[in-house]
Amino acid sequence: ENVAWAIGGAASSKVPKWVIDALIQALRDIDADVRRSAARTIADMRFNEVIMEAAGASADIPEEEDECTHDPAQSREAAKDPIVALTEGLADSDERVRLSAVWAFGRASCRKAIPEEIIMTLAEALKSEDSGLRWAAACAMGNVRWSAVPRAAVDALTAVLSDSCMDAASSAAFAIGNVYSSGEAPSDVINALSAALNDDDQGVRGTAASAIGKALGTACISHEVVESLVMVVKDEQPNVRCMATWAIGHIAGLNEVPNEAIDALASALKDVETDVRRNVVVALGTAARRNAVSRQTLDGLLEALRDVDGGVRSKAAWAIGKAASTTDAEHVVDALRAALTDSDEEVRNVAAGAMAEVAPHIKLSPEVVDAFARVFRESGRDVPGVAVWEPGRRREVSKAAVDAFVEAMEDTDGGVRTQGASCFRRALGKAALSQEAIDVLALALADDVVSVRWYAARSLRNVSSFNKVPKEVISLSMAALGDDDLAVRCFAVQTLGRAALSDEMPEAAVVALAGALMDPFRWIRRDAARAIARVARLAEVPREATDALAGAAKDSCEEVRCTAVEAIRAAARRA
Fold first, then answer.
1. 319 contacts 288 by C-beta, under 8 angstroms
2. Which is nearest to 75 in space by CA: 15, 9, 7, 121?
3. What confidence tier does 65 reach under pLDDT thresholds 50, 70, 90?
4. Which of 108, 219, 307, 311 suits a disulfide with 51, CB 3.0-4.6 Å?
5. E-state strands within 222-281
6. On the CB side of 326, how many CA atoms lie within 13 Å of its CA?
7. How far is CA 122 from CA 62, 101, 144, in A?
8. CB 211 within 8 A of CB 220
9. CA 91 to CA 99: how far, in whole Å?
10. What are residue 145's phi and psi, to 5 degrees?
């Protein structure tokens, strides 16, 4: 018995075959303690390779550490012995051996689907007169992945839902939820779980509610099931209410549900238990994906923004961002603006993200922008940067936002500066560049952190797509052509290429593009030739550029050569 126990503590999941053989032999020992210890050892070692090899999987049995070798086909045949021996253990005269055997099956290869014959063996154990064995078998069936879903096994689990052993019934509900977590359960299985919501045991009721949420999938929810879940939302036990609210939210996130289900969630916003209120606000936010949220429910979420618990407030802000429609945007903006000054940092940041959700439907006041700027300065996160401008509108970024980004760019922490540059890129959008914004980008392009320069160069390229490129941007891009980072140079060339579409391209910029024709990276050389060709169609190019193009016409990259020839032709026509 002690030796079997010691092997479990010393060996890993990949063990020599002689250890497997020894444990198989111990599973048939005349002493029950030895059999139990051997089964527990198999359970503790999980025996992933051994049991899956018996199922015909592709797992390899590890080689011996000595010079002995064996035929893989013979090893697969021998590996079936643990399953046979453990199956015999399910009928052992000793209760502890039976429990250990079931436990070993339950822990076998949690990462891989186990074969149907093992599932059916465990299903047979559900019919045992031993309540402990039924409980262990239900646990095992819920802990493993099924390679198939035999209806007989599901029926056996369904029958255990009304078991006199509460642990067995709860574990059976958990197993059913896991089995059907990626698919729609049959209606009779859902009805059996719905009936379990009336069980006397709180564990059974809570697990059954959770299983209904998992097992319904995208199936339409019946009125009877809704009534059962709504009733459980008012259960006297907090953990049952938590499970019920989660189940309704999960179902509502995939399907349209009756209004009474959403109303039941809204009524639970004032629950005395913090965990329940947290679940409720998350469920309402999830439900908003497929279901319309009434103004009364939205008002309940707005009230949850003033909850004593920070977790409830932050989740309420998230839910408001998901639930507020176009017509409700103005209704929630004042509450969200107040949340931007919350004492909890997480609440402030989530509220900023929620404001970003409703920003396309409202006009941001200077007070809101100032609040965003304050949140950004305090946290250095990238969430508030999304909503410091009105998306889709050509307008300047507000001075409050620019000041916040300038402060971030002067931070000693490179991570904060990177987040600031990232935010500024997103905040610019299609906005016209003000002098203050150009100053921020100049500061970022001179940073010693590559990612900061990368975001700044990308900002210049993006803005140049929608606006006339100022001379200051052209100058910044020219300087960026000498950057050590490949991506920064790429963005700089592309920015100059877009600036070349105007007739105000300075000669110095064209000369700088001519220098980029000798860049080590071929796409930079190609884009530089393309930019010079654009200039040549509108104006005469300097001699330095045509000489550089002549050299590029002999480039090792065919695409660079073709683009250079096109540029030479355009310059020749102009000349």
1. yes
2. 15
3. very low
4. 108
5. none
6. 1
7. 28, 10, 11
8. no
9. 10
10. -90, 135
Segment 527-551 shows an average pLDDT of 88
What DSSP state is assigned to residue 256?
Answer: -
Q: Specify the pLDDT at position 355.
A: 77
Spatial CB neighbours of 333, under 8 Å, sequence gap ≥ 6: 355, 358, 362, 368
One-letter amino acid for residue 81 of the chain: D
329: pLDDT strictly greater than 90: no
For 184-195, the pLDDT digits (tens) are: 788 888 889 999
Structure tokens at 259: 């209004």
Rg of the chain in Å (alpha carbons): 34
Task: Collect all residues with Cβ–Cβ distance below 8 Å to 258 and sequence separation of at least 6.
Answer: 221, 223, 226
Beta strands in 116-167 (DSSP E): 145-146
Q: Which residue bears the tokens 């950057």? A: 483
Residue 335 CA to residue 328 CA, distance in Å, equals 12
Q: Which residues of 23-60 are buried (b: 16+ CB within 10 A; e: fewer)?
A: bbebbebeeeebbbbbbbbbbbbbbbbbbbbbbebebe
| Average pLDDT of the segment spanning 177-181 | 87
What is the Cα–Cα distance from 567 to 534, expressed in whole angstroms?
8
The full 3-state SS of 269-313, as one line of letters, equals HHCCCHHHHHHHHHHHHHHCCCCCCCHHHHHHHHHHCCCCCHHHH
**C-alpha to C-alpha distance for 38 and 94, rounded to whole angstroms:** 14
Res 124 pLDDT > 90 = no
According to DSSP, the residues that pair with 146 across neighbouring strands are 114
- Integer Cα distance of 434 and 457 in angstroms: 16
Q: If you average pLDDT over residues 248-272, what whole number do you get? A: 85
User: Which helix (H) or strand (E) covers residue 543, if one does?
Assistant: helix 543-552
Q: What are phi and psi of 176, to 5 degrees?
A: -65, -45
CA distance 515 to 487: 17
